[in-house]
Design goal:
single chain, 221 residues, alpha+beta, minor pseudopilin epsh fold, 4-stranded antiparallel sheet, 4 helices, 20% strand, elongated
Amino acid sequence: MKTRNQRNRMAPASKNSIPCVSVDPKVKKTVWARIQNEAGLTLIELLTVIAVIGILGSVAISNFSDWLYRYQADSEANKLYFDLMAAKQLAIRSNSTVIVTFNSSSGFYSIHNDLDRDGSVDTGETVKTVPLENDINYGISSGTLGVWGTAVSSPIALNGATQVKFYSWGQADRSGALYLIPASDLVTNEKQRQRAVKIIQATGNIEVMRYDGTGSPGPWS
């Protein structure tokens, strides 16, 4: 008669039993090493990634700052251009003289509809004051030639005056140019973001110009 232990040894393996497999220790070591290598970055790799991200970030910030300064300079130059065009049209429409006065120290300009052409602000005459914004100033970098290719002593270059008049027949009383620049560029003497608004006396035409270093007669286009 078989004992209980004998019967247990002879019993067939259960369907759900898991066979025990012996693994060579060398194989275990190789597999574990591979898992560790694939688990993440080494310290050197991580520092390299951080350095690359920092370089790309600094380049992106520099490019964005340059774009922002150019955009702000264009915006203020265009605002001045459209206000001068509106002053010219107002003089024609109202049969008056419109005086635009520029103040470099305060950074604004005023537009006076001089109905009686006496040069004074009288009752019923309008005066509109407009500030320069977005950190844009009247200014020109040192050593920069003006729109006519000559040296410029003042950013309000109106033949020694600080104002321009538009007459009812469309002409201006003088030719000249107004130079605009980001405030920080006055310190660093950066030239590429300068803008100029040019006025032609004979026709009253007004143009916005950008410094590019290659124009003729001046380095503007």
